[in-house]
Amino acid sequence: MDTPPLPRRKTIRLQHYDYAQSGAYFVTICTAAREPLFGVIRRGGLYGRPPVPAYVELSETGHIVESYLTEIPSHYPNVHLASYVIMPDHIHMILVLTQNQPQRAGQCPAPTEESDLSCRRGGTPGPPALPKIINAFKSLTTRKAGISLWQRGYYEHILRNQQDFDEAAGYIAGNPVRRLEREGFG
């Protein structure tokens, strides 16, 4: 008895778009099975700060994720982390990729486990594409946490203008409050 082939997973990536080119990208990555691994949402002020409507109190795993997330620009100098929020079961971020001066052929950073693998394997050094950055981030955080953290894939949206950027940044900033309201605690 023949089993029918599994359906092909559809890609949400734009065909023929260079995800290494300069631009701003809104990215969402969800935890495996949407498990709340990264913390809980709380009301009030955090660590003596003025009261805020809501914030995420990070778990140990949430702190690991935040540590690696904020280190992305130190591993990829042409990448800026413009905004982010770590929610209990997902993260949102805006990554801005910029083109730096091109490196001469054969010039690579000193190899580390976090450095650009294509450069170590004799590839041409250059700006990393968004999928490479996200996959490295997911891999390193999973390895450090010692458990499977992430769903397969991620969501990304190319921010095409300042209005797009501002809306995404506002969405990120308001995410904890919206979660409280949705759960009936707002």
List its salient traits.
186 residues; 31% helix
Mean pLDDT, all residues: 82
The run of helices and strands is EEEHEEHHEH
Question: How far is the first residue's CA from the last residue's CA?
Answer: 55 Å
**Class from secondary-structure proportions:** alpha+beta
Strand order of the largest sheet: 4-5-1-6
Range of helix content: 25-40%
Which outline best applies? Answer: globular
Radius of gyration: 18 Å
**Major beta sheet summary:** 4 strands, antiparallel
* Content of β-strand: 15-25%
Uncertain segments are 101-124
Strand count = 6
Work out the helix count: 4
Structure commentary:
- The structure is a single chain.
- With 186 residues, the protein is of the alpha+beta class.
- 31% of the residues lie in helices and 20% in strands.
- The protein has helices spanning 60-75, 117-120, 130-145, 162-182, and strands at residues 23-30, 39-42, 55-58, 79-86, 90-97, 155-159.
- It has a four-stranded antiparallel sheet, with helices on both faces. The protein has a two-stranded antiparallel ribbon with strand order 2-3.
- The termini are far apart.
